[in-house]
Amino acid sequence: MAQPDPPRPSVQTLDRGLRLLELIALSQAPLPLAELAEQMRLHRSIVYRLLRTLQDHRLIVHTPQGYVLGTRAQSLGRNALPVLQRIAKPEIAKLAARVGLTAFFVVRDGDEAVTLVSVEVESARSRTVYTPGDRHPLTRGSPGIAILSAEPPRAGERPEIAKARETGFAATANEVIPGLATIAAPVTSAPDTAVAAVAIAYSVERLGRAELDAVLDTARVITGRLRTALSTGAVVPGVT
């Protein structure tokens, strides 16, 4: 009989500090000490010491309203997945200019979709900002559905995933941000292996074929360049 894997060692202080940083990073508003202590289920004095250490490294900043991410954390985030960012950024910028709408590039992180690149266009048709680092379940919103649609069918999957698998794109409305619709197409590193999605967001009218073609074209270009980069030895964590 196979023996169970031994438990992985854990450094408690590091684990707590990382969980605390994640709470602050995922919050839409500054978090005061009392709320952080409650969410961490730790005494305020322990949380305060962790916060001071994170402040010393410029990972967080204390404001009158509470704690927010610091400049160092934002700099680290900009360097996430450098190969994908290098490939995606110029193409997402071209897509936003081509359609006159906010365009963004979403990567898969386990069961979540995370915005990696976003180019906002200020117009009556598209006002919403997709900020790098924003995340939501893969099963909600067109980017996640597009990613899942590039994989083999699974029992119990949403009908929208099967439809996107047939059409090559996903379209949803009011699933992640109320009043906002999105269209997305998958980016694959190999057949049946989706790693990301190209998407545009809009809030006014139904889009036409021109916008859809622009999304599909951009996804194809990024897919091709990603596969070329991987074939020449580029390393992308979590991508095969």
Molecular structure report:
- With 240 residues, the chain is α+β, with helices and mostly antiparallel strands.
- It has two domains: 12-76, Winged helix-like DNA-binding domain superfamily/Winged helix DNA-binding domain (Arc Repressor Mutant, subunit A, Orthogonal Bundle); 80-231, GAF domain (Beta-Lactamase), CATH 3.30.450.40.
- 42% of the residues lie in helices and 21% in strands.
- It is built from eight helices and eight strands, in the order H-H-H-E-E-H-H-E-E-E-H-H-E-E-E-H.
- It has helices at residues 12-26, 33-40, 44-56, 71-78, 82-99, 142-149, 159-167, 209-231; strands at residues 60-63, 66-69, 102-109, 112-119, 135-137, 170-173, 181-190, 193-202.
- The strands form two sheets. The chain has a six-stranded antiparallel beta sheet.
- Helix 1 packs across helix 3.
- The protein is globular, with a radius of gyration of 20 Å.
- It starts with 11 loop residues before the first helix and ends in a 9-residue tail after the last helix.
- 34% of the residues are buried.
Write the layout of secondary structure elements.
Blueprint: H1 12-26, H2 33-40, H3 44-56, E1 60-63, E2 66-69, H4 71-78, H5 82-99, E3 102-109, E4 112-119, E5 135-137, H6 142-149, H7 159-167, E6 170-173, E7 181-190, E8 193-202, H8 209-231
Antiparallel strand pairs: 1-2, 3-4, 3-8, 4-5, 6-7, 7-8
Helix pairs in contact: 1-3, 2-3, 5-8, 6-7
Number of H/I helices: 8
CATH superfamily of the largest domain: GAF domain
**What is the residue-mean pLDDT, rounded to a whole number?**
84
Rg of Cα set: 20 Å
Helix content: 40-55%
CATH class of the largest domain: Alpha Beta
Q: What is the H/E order? A: HHHEEHHEEEHHEEEH
Largest sheet: 6 strands, antiparallel
Strand content: 15-25%
